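Progress note, sequence design subtask.
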């Protein structure tokens, strides 16, 4: 398996180079000059020229790209035009918020979708199956930004039971050691901080995970339904095993390969899909940072973030591939 993973890692290098090249070219092709956008209206032409020279924008595009790639391989993603900080530091500051939200969203999706999908497969064409199918179609069909706005209007605007934006209430979170508000509250025993972090994650987590609930429920239902027709399941029932044991121990366990694949792919999608949700809920994560970078034509920031997203997606796929052999020992690389 080690040789397989090494080959996969080697094969990702051209993918990363191609994606960064496309992003770099598209950013430079978009209208708007970063120096003119970021500097004030009273800035003189000489100051704009000096800023372009300082940021390297007066050089040909291919020279700028080669310089970026050269330093990126050393872990240096350049310095943001807008924030005047290293891009790697900005990513490190915002990454915990995005990871926390994506983790919460995927926990919501898995805890709802998998039991619902298994129950629907156990009783095909029943009211449970119809309910699960309806919820799945709702989750797949609803755009995350629309669902987020509706949740804000309902839960925050009408019933006033949950906060509408932000990551914490001012003065409640306290000092942060890890950047993860929920985890830091648990480590410090600050239960007010834990509760505050939890209630702030509910609405964006639901908006972000709703689409995954629909997809994962449908995949779970189809996979378990197919497995329940296998001979070893019929044999287990013939031996007198309880139906619950047949369903969860034999059915779900042998249907995990496509389910784990979808969870891994959707986790990468959650990280990128959080861009819109973070903007709707004013969540201080990588998504809102990327929107800021795009609107201000911050080339190093946008390229660094896209490179990070791509690397994360590739890493998740490698982990999923490695899990296949643990889930099903018959799989060999």
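Output:
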């Amino acid at each position: 398996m080690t040789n397989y993973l090494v080959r996969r890692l080697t094969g990702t290098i051209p993918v990363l180079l191609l994606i960064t090249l496309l992003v770099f070219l598209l950013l430079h092709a978009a209208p708007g000059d970063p120096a003119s956008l970021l500097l004030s209206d009273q800035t003189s032409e000489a100051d704009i020229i000096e800023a372009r020279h300082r940021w390297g924008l007066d050089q040909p595009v291919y020279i700028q790209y080669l310089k970026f790639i050269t330093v990126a391989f050393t872990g240096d993603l350049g310095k943001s035009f807008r924030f005047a900080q290293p891009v790697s530091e900005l990513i490190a500051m915002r990454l915990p918020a995005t990871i926390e939200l994506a983790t919460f969203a995927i926990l919501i999706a898995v805890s709802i979708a998998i039991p619902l999908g298994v129950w629907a497969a156990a009783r095909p064409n029943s009211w449970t199956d119809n309910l699960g199918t309806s919820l799945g179609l709702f989750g797949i069909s609803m755009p995350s930004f629309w669902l987020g706005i509706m949740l804000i209007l309902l839960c925050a605007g009408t019933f006033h039971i949950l906060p509408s934006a932000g990551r914490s209430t001012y003065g409640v979170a306290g000092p942060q050691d890890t950047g993860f508000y929920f985890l830091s509250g648990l480590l410090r025993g600050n239960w007010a901080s834990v509760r505050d972090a939890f209630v702030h994650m509910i609405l964006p987590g639901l908006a972000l995970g709703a689409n995954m609930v629909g997809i994962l429920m449908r995949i779970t239902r189809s996979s378990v339904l197919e497995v329940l027709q296998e001979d070893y399941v019929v044999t287990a029932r013939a031996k007198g095993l309880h139906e619950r044991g047949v369903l969860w121990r034999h059915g779900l366990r042998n249907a995990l390969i496509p389910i784990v694949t979808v969870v891994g792919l959707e986790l990468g999608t959650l990280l990128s899909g959080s861009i819109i949700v973070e903007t709707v809920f004013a969540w201080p994560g990588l998504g809102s940072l990327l929107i800021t970078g795009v609107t201000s034509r911050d080339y190093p920031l946008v390229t660094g973030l896209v490179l990070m997203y791509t690397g994360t997606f590739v890493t998740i796929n490698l982990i999923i591939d490695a899990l296949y052999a643990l889930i099903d020992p018959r799989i060999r690389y």
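Residues 275 and 291 are 7 Å apart (CA to CA). Work on this subtask will continue into the next period as scheduled.
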